Known about the structure:
By secondary structure, the chain is mainly α. It has one domain (2-102). 81% of the residues lie in helices and 0% in strands. Helix 1 packs antiparallel against helix 2 (29-49) and helix 3 (55-77) packs antiparallel against helix 4 (84-102). The two termini are 15 Å apart. It is a multi-pass membrane protein. The chain crosses the membrane at residues 33-50, 59-78, 84-103. Keywords: Cell membrane, Membrane, Transmembrane, Transmembrane helix, Transport. Belongs to the drug/metabolite transporter (DMT) superfamily. Small multidrug resistance (SMR) (TC 2.A.7.1) family.
Amino acid sequence: xxxxxxxxxxxxxxxxxxxxxxxxxxxxxxxxxxxxxxxxxxxxxxxxxxxxxxxxxxxxxxxxxxxxxxxxxxxxxxxxxxxxxxxxxxxxxxxxxxxxxxxx
Length: 104
């Protein structure tokens, strides 16, 4: 259960990162509200997962999922560059996240 909560919390990290960008410095109420809610839920989920998962592993996986999700969202939905080197680097991060799960 802790791993599922950790993955969902990592996805929520992507949500709050994108909402933070869209809030335009907290001047737009909708994205600012999404940012706040996603941030709270993401942190609560991380805290829950860290009851079972070691902090180094849990935090690294959480950040990795958030980073991959945010970068992919940027490339797919926000017209950020999607070069081969960027995609290869994201695959390296993904490999690290999977490795941390299996060598936990």
